[in-house]
Amino acid sequence: MEHQAGMNERHSRILAIDDTPANLLTLGAALSEEFDVQIATSGAQGLALAAEMPPDLILLDVMMPGMDGFETCRRLKADTRLKDIPVIFVTALNDIESEIQGLGLGAVDYITKPIQVSIARQRIRNLLEREQLRRQLMAQRDQLALEVAEHARTQVMLRKLTVAIEQGPAAVVITDPDGTIQYVNPGFTAMTGYDATEVIGENPRILQSGETSQNTYQNLWQHLEAGQAWQGELINKRKNGEHYWEESLIAPVTDASGAITHYVAVKSDVTKRKAAEETIKDANRQYQDLLSAASEFSIILTDKNGVIRIFNRGAERMLGYRADELIGKAVPAVLHVAAEVQQRGEALSAELGRPVAGFDVFIAKLDTEGQDRHEWTYVRKDGSHLTVALVVTEVYSATGEIVSYLGIAQDVTERKTADKKLQLAASVFTHAREGIMITDAEGTIIEVNDTFTRITGYQKEEVIGRNPRILKSGRHTPQDYAAMWKSLCEKKHWYGEVWNRRKNGEIFAEMQTISAVCDATGKTQHFVALFSDITPMKEHEQRLEHIAHYDALTHLPNRVLLADRLQRALLQSQRRNNSLAVVFLDLDSFKEVNDTHGHGVGDELLITVSQRMKSALREGDTLARIGGDEFVAVLVDLEQAEDCQRILERMLIAVSDPVISGETSLQVSASMGVTLYPQDGSDTDVLMRHADQAMYAAKQAGKNRYHLFDVAQDNAIKIQHDSLERIRLALSRHEFLLYYQPKVNMKSGEVIGAEALIRWQHPERGLLNPAEFLPITEDHPISIEIGEWVIGTALAQMSSWHARGLAVPVSVNIGARQLQQDCFATRLSQLLAEHPNVQPWSLQLEVLETSCLEDLGKVGAVMKACQAVGVDFTLDDFGTGYSSLSHLKHLPAATLKIDQSFVRDMLDDPNDLAIINGVIGLARAFGRSVIAEGVETAAHATLLISMGCEDAQGYGIARPMPATDLPAWISGWRHLGYVGKT
Length: 982
Prior knowledge:
Layout: H1 2-7, E1 13-17, H2 21-31, E2 36-40, H3 43-52, E3 57-61, H4 69-78, E4 87-91, H5 96-104, E5 109-112, H6 117-163, E6 171-175, E7 181-184, H7 186-192, H8 196-199, H9 214-225, E8 230-237, E9 243-254, E10 260-269, H10 283-293, E11 298-302, E12 308-311, H11 313-319, H12 323-326, H13 331-335, H14 338-352, H15 360-363, H16 366-369, E13 371-379, E14 385-396, E15 402-411, H17 413-431, E16 435-440, E17 445-448, H18 450-456, H19 460-463, H20 478-491, E18 493-501, E19 507-518, E20 524-533, H21 535-549, H22 559-576, E21 579-588, H23 590-597, H24 599-616, E22 622-625, E23 630-638, H25 641-656, E24 659-661, E25 664-666, E26 669-677, H26 684-700, E27 705-708, H27 711-732, E28 736-745, E29 751-762, E30 766-768, H28 774-777, H29 782-803, E31 810-814, H30 816-819, H31 824-833, E32 843-848, H32 856-869, E33 872-878, H33 884-890, E34 895-898, H34 900-904, H35 910-925, E35 929-933, H36 938-947, E36 951-953, E37 961-962, H37 966-976
Helix pairs in contact: 3-4, 23-24, 24-25, 31-32
């Protein structure tokens, strides 16, 4: 009994099943001192007790009513929970067949009645000891399997760690089986201060500080001697005597036979934190630490229901969770995209023919394939996604039961991205609109895409293995290609335009990028050329270049190209020390051709004349069109003035020769202004301006000629420019005002109106008459501004008088430039509309007869348009022009004004008197009224009245006066009458 008690920490439980109470009492009494005995009086009761608390041994009677011992044994062995419990049959039967039957059902022994208690007790004791030994052997087998697996995993980890030994920050020590140091890495030197030469051949005990417990060292060697890795913390001493904490992972390295050949220690200096007080002792923690060291993988261990039990450091780094945040939670709920899990479950359900959902999605195929490999989308803690390759396997217990599932995941996001990029690159290569050519490092073509074939005409088979020189056009020099290769060698890149030749011989332009593809060492392996056909673009650029620099009608250089040509000519003239001429040319009477025959004929004339002028120039000279009928010629390499004059004369002849258009013969002439470099200017702007000024001088001199620029003329133009600017300033400062000179009927004494006359209240020079400033404004746009100001001011004054009950018709003078504006009648209507109380008939416009000569037709049309508005005209200074009778016929003016030059001398000069008489006769003949200006004496008035001219104005009647004085003058005139009145 003592021996039995020593072998068992508790009494073994025995279940006795017998339908005879006496037998049960006997067994109980015999066995209860050494064993815990339970009794059952039937097979059914025995099965229930065994299921509730499985015994270590069952004594089973064979002969029982109902369920006999054999059936009871059969049911025990059919129950997976009870099948391993040893059964001893107890029976009075002594035949061999019954014993064989019982043993065949799984019984381990047979005891016959009557029972010999001491023998039965010993047989039971022996049987229990054998069962205990069997169980111990099974446990040792399972432990050995775990240790073997653990050892293999440790070996794998050690081999992985050796890759980073030399570069890693950790200290690494390798010893032989006796502990003699054979190798230390630089991390060891950095940690301890010992150089490798100082410790090779020594024992690691040279690092011991005496502060690490002996238990720690014993534990260390126990692991190592058992072939296991040891991880823990030690207090060691550096070469300089300083103590430090280190975390060490020490593992044996074995050969193929399992014999230890080395020990490898990986040490980290953990002085800054306190070492853990307990070393890792149990296998589960060792397993978890080894899993944690596999940082490149996410390793998750779950129970059979998918609840996380182990979450290694690799998983923490990969997913952003701490292990304690996920342990105890279900895998699909926290790490996976629900829709993806559902989709996978539906696919597996269709494949396996049964419902698959939840955690079953990850393990459904393990029964048939042993492991499940699939790519999944993991969800990190921050909500971001990554793609992993997940392998799920079953983990078995020592008894062969599935106890957990191991999932090993590797982040393949970058690989997937790279795969997509490769697929995209392949797609781009195939479908790119650019041609792509790949060569090896020597320049031999190894691949081209379809666009290459489309652009060059060469099929892939025709160029593979050949050099890109087959595309050379011959337009580039060897230096061009040398610069290209220099860039490729130095910068690994070249970009630019290349002219190449297609298979059919056609030359084409391409925009090309060449890049060198290098290996890890920087050595060029391939060249990749991307190019696009830019021939249409180049052609378009050429067209745009022509449009930008050439006149669309004559195809002569335009103003932009002229500026460039002139600048180049100046530089050339400086280098050659000779002269050049700039000729500004304007066609005379071209406007009449356009107006009379239309723009189509005008364009034809321009084209013909420009071709003739160009032919009149020399090679190297430039002829440009800079405006409608304006041209500029640049004459280069002039050695003497006669060279220039001969060319100018040829140009005049070229322009003046008739141009035949259909059945019409057209003829124009040219006014040309000429300036010389370096005599007349040193830069292009000055030369152009001087030539322009000289051209206007040629026009003023009678046209159809050329005029050489002179300095005096330039000074006069500058003075004119300054005067115009001062007049413009005066207009903006409201320095102009209107004076009014009354008009009267000399016979009746009636005031018939007043003429508005402009004055300039100059701040320095006082009140200026029109003759002192208006001539400067002729043929200048400011004359239009002044004329419009006069009309507007006169209408405003008339409106003011009308509001005071004074209705005085007013005439204003209109210049030729203003009158010939296409919008003049429209603008006049707008000004009248601003003063609705002024009747249009009360405003009369005076226009010089001579100003109508340039374009009678247009002036006549404008006058008629104004008459339609209600405003009539007076022809001023009538009789001073040429062919006045013809003008009177075409110009619908209501009144003729006799010029004061005739009136002034009419008393003494019979010619002037005759002209006045003729004008009065013409007015009467054409039904026009007549008025004389410059009437200064009663004798003038009396003679004019006698000749039939009753209306007049002049100093003899009244001088021009401010608007404020006119009402009082009119009032006084009416009361006093005219002194010359008859």
